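Entry 14. Two folds queued back to back today. First construct below, sequence then structure tokens.
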Amino acid sequence: MILLVALGLGLAGVVACATGALALRRRAADRRLGALVAIDAGRPATLRSERYRLVGRPDALRRRPDGRLVPIELKHRSLPRRGPYPSHLVQLGAYCLLVEETTGVAPPFGLLRYRDGEVEVPFDAELRRTVLAALAAAKAPYDGSADPSPAKCAGCPWSPRCDRSQAPAR
């Protein structure tokens, strides 16, 4: 019994050390990114663009030594094996676009931070095109291409106002 307790305490110590090492690596990475400017949990920075009719609040903004801001999006899941989901990239790209609109200077990249790693995403012409295409698609009138069904429509918040809804009447 004492051996099991000792093994358990030893394992707990190893986990604590690994967690502490990860936290130290993150702090070092944060220093590399620059000074913390805003964080959604305390000092939020709501970014607005009249031009794109877009509003967003990144989880964090850091100011690099050259003055440029870098948006950081926190994801409370593991990094997907095949890389970030397209929706995560578009969200981060939208924050980069908002930073550019707000400050007049494009960020060099945005950062997707997952529970077990992070991905630096360059804010390049391709990401800009992807974000602008997603914005255009979101603002376009509905083309009727959805495939409604009672199961899909039942949980949809728009079903009371949708002319194609197959949700049961409430």
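Second construct, same run, same settings:
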Amino acid sequence: MIPLPQWMRRALYITAVMNILASAAFIPGATALRAVVGFPQASHPLYLSTAGIFVLLFGLGYLWTAMMGRADRMFITLAAVGKLSFFALLVRLWASDALPLRAPLLGSADLIFSMLFFAWLFGSRADTGAASDAFRRAS
């Protein structure tokens, strides 16, 4: 587990709230909310509920990680790739006229968080490498 800088903790808190609130859009009866964000209206409750559970669980994971002030690189890697993948999916579906433009515009927050997460990953790798080198030299 790697200690988190304050900016990363803030990013995790914000995306935690975003994910927890966004999970409401996947409640099967939330058709009006899905219309506001530009998501398709008709879908089987199993698929909506499954997607909602994953969005909620990641939101809770972001919250827990921010509260603890330490992160596992694998979790942040999954978060970064997941957020980037979701944004890319929204753009692809918008480009094929399957979603309105507001869907990728609203989803651009995921792109921003993905970039922040990748920045932390690359920065923490350098920090971890420098610490490992210092430890090896001291031994």
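Quick look at the second one. The CA atoms of residues 128 and 134 lie 10 Å apart. The chain is about 80% helix and 5% strand.
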